[in-house]
């Protein structure tokens, strides 16, 4: 700084400007760090040639049923996986009119998922009707929504105190928001619409607020609960309550008309609430607690999700109790929070099951209402922190893509063929999807495991094969290459072995690596899958071509 004296006045001017706006520079830096972390994380999900398609969670088991418009594109598909919800909604985005008859086969429940037409339609519009652009626009919606929400929440949580940072950061890094981004779901964009509706109400524009809440109902049906913000104060007269009824009818109208459209032109149960989405009061919530406590002993570096499930339950319970025990009817956010607290009581197993569970996403408006309403001051810090515990799970929820389960290294002239086809490795269907923890990646096999290795060169290549092998129960494992045995070992219970195989020769074209075991698979802890062995950190070093014989 001594070498640049002109910088000091500039820094002082910036600091004075921040103080004039009542912004704490240190807190502001914390906000900026969160945004920078998000953008850095986003970059990790970009795959050359496939864009952000990893976020849509396409599963290989659904490939045959998928729309031909999708199958013609280059996108990331998770092996041996059923995929997740966004893979259905992005296909609806290819034809938001729902008139493509192939959608009935491609989407698991077209009447149910078709109700949530808003963000499929916006993806179609931003993608200009071009399938490849629609695919990327669909994934980008959560990114844009996250950034807009980060700015909008400054209305309630300006960067003035660390107390506000917990409220703002606790929302932006909550596991619900993170998982919405991570799986290109509608919960993050829905929270943005609800927050924008309340913002307009704060600015004295109730009719514009009504329009936003009406639009949000086409994103997710539960978004309509946000329109509780439009209810008047208890002391307001009959005219205010009459206007509230009119606004309520206007809010429901777009979704009601769309449901009629689905019933007339698509068929099926347009009012289907979804399988197991609702249950008796607190029944599924109680079962979730039992499931989490049962699986907590299995928490490890490779399986922290039961812990994240516990943090979610604690946070949601604290939010629920605060809203129920401290009624504030005159506050629009309290009316929204209470509406979602009532919804929480009746949520079914489909929303709670899994780790951490969809409840963290479905109840995001309750968390934001909680953060707005909890009083400032040290006396409330414990409550505020407990209600935002899921922020601790953000690194796990935003973990970068697992990759394809292998790394290939070597000179470009060997790794790539003459037509730029790449040295490729493909796991067969008996392998489970790739998993990852920090720098380690692995695949479990449910029995004998086949891997197809493709040499793109017209001559044989010499390679080195490196991997680690772990087993759940004692067994012998052999490795074969094109029918010839390369290596074998005996492994004890829960043992691990690092293996390096040198001077392996791969002929041109595909070769078959087969891991063979002599024992059937078994269960490991709470994992429901039958597991035989785990292949970890598979690496292939392409070293040199085999000289042609004279």
Attribute tags:
alpha+beta, 22 helices, 6-stranded mixed β-sheet, globular, 2 domains, 15 strands, 5-stranded antiparallel β-sheet
Low-pLDDT segments, ≥5 res: none
Distinct helical segment count: 22
Measured distance between first and last alpha carbons: 69 Å
Whole-angstrom Rg: 27 Å
Strand proportion, as a percent range, falls in 15-25%
Sheet of most strands: 6 strands, mixed
Structural class: alpha+beta
Q: How many β-strand stretches?
A: 15
Provide the residue-averaged pLDDT: 90
Shape: globular
Whole-number count of domains: 2
Q: What percent of the residues sit in helical stretches (DSSP H or I)?
A: 40-55%
Can you offer a commentary on this structure?
With 550 residues, the chain is an alpha+beta fold. The model has no long low-confidence stretch (mean pLDDT 90). The protein has helices at 7-20, 25-44, 68-71, 86-93, 103-106, 110-114, 118-126, 131-152, 162-172, 175-182, 187-202, 206-216, 238-265, 283-295, 305-325, 332-346, 349-352, 359-362, 364-373, 381-387, 394-397, 412-415, and strands at 58-59, 77-78, 407-409, 424-427, 435-437, 440-445, 449-455, 461-471, 475-481, 484-491, 496-506, 509-517, 522-524, 527-531, 533-545. The chain folds into 2 domains: 25-47 and 153-397, no CATH class; 407-545, Jelly Rolls. It is 44% helix and 17% strand. α9 packs parallel to α20 (381-387). Strands 3, 5, 6, 8, 11 and 15 form a 6-stranded mixed beta sheet that branches. Strands 4-7-12-9-10 form a 5-stranded antiparallel beta sheet, with no helix packed on it. Strands 1-2 form a two-stranded parallel ribbon.
């Amino acid at each position: 700084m001594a070498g640049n004296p002109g910088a000091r006045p500039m820094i002082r001017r910036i600091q004075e400007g921040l103080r004039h706006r009542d912004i704490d520079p240190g807190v502001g830096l914390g906000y900026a760090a969160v945004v920078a972390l998000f953008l850095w994380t986003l970059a990790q999900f970009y795959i050359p040639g496939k864009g952000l398609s990893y976020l849509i969670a396409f599963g290989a088991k659904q490939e045959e049923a998928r729309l031909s418009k999708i199958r013609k594109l280059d996108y990331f598909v998770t092996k041996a996986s059923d995929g997740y919800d966004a893979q259905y909604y992005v296909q609806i985005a290819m034809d938001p009119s729902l008139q493509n008859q192939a959608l009935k086969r491609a989407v698991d429940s077209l009447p149910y998922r078709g109700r949530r037409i808003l963000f499929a339609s916006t993806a179609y519009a931003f993608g200009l009707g071009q399938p490849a652009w629609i695919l990327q626009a669909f994934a980008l919606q959560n990114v844009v929504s996250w950034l807009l929400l980060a700015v909008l929440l400054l209305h309630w949580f300006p960067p003035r105190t660390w107390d506000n940072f917990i409220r703002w950061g606790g929302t932006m890094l909550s596991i619900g928001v993170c998982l919405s981004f991570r799986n290109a779901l509608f919960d993050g964009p829905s929270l943005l619409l609800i927050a924008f509706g309340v913002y307009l109400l704060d600015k004295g524009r109730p009719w514009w607020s009504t329009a936003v809440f009406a639009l949000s109902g086409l994103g997710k049906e539960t978004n309509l609960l946000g329109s509780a913000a439009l209810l008047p104060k208890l002391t307001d007269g009959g005219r205010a309550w009459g206007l509230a009824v009119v606004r309520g009818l206007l809010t429901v109208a777009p979704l009601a008309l769309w449901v009629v459209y689905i019933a007339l032109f698509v068929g099926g149960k347009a009012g289907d609430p979804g399988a197991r989405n609702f249950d008796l009061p607190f029944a599924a919530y109680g079962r979730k607690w039992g499931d989490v406590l049962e699986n907590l002993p299995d928490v490890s570096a490779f399986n922290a999700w039961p812990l994240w499930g516990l943090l979610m339950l604690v946070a949601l319970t604290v939010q629920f109790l605060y809203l129920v025990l401290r009624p504030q009817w005159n506050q629009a956010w309290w009316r929204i929070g209470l509406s979602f607290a009532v919804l929480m009581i009746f949520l079914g197993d489909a929303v709670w099951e899994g780790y951490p569970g969809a409840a963290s996403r479905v109840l995001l408006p309750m968390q934001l209402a909680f953060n707005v309403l909890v009083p400032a001051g040290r006396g409330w810090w414990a409550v505020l922190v407990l209600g935002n515990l899921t922020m601790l799970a953000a690194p796990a929820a935003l973990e970068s893509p697992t990759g394809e389960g292998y790394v290939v290294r070597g000179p470009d002239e060997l790794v790539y063929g003459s037509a730029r086809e790449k040295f490729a490795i493909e796991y067969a269907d008996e392998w489970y999807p790739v998993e990852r923890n920090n720098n380690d990646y692995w695949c479990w096999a449910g029995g004998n495991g086949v891997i197809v290795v493709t040499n793109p060169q017209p001559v044989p290549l010499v390679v080195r094969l490196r991997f680690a092998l772990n087993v759940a129960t004692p067994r012998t494992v052999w490795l074969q290459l094109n029918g010839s045995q390369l290596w074998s070992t005996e492994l004890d219970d829960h043992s691990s072995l690092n293996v390096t195989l040198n001077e392996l020769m791969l002929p041109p074209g595909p070769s078959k690596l087969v891991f063979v075991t002599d024992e059937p698979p078994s269960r490991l802890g709470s994992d429901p899958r039958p597991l035989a062995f785990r292949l970890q950190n598979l690496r292939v070093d392409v070293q040199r071509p085999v000289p042609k014989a004279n």
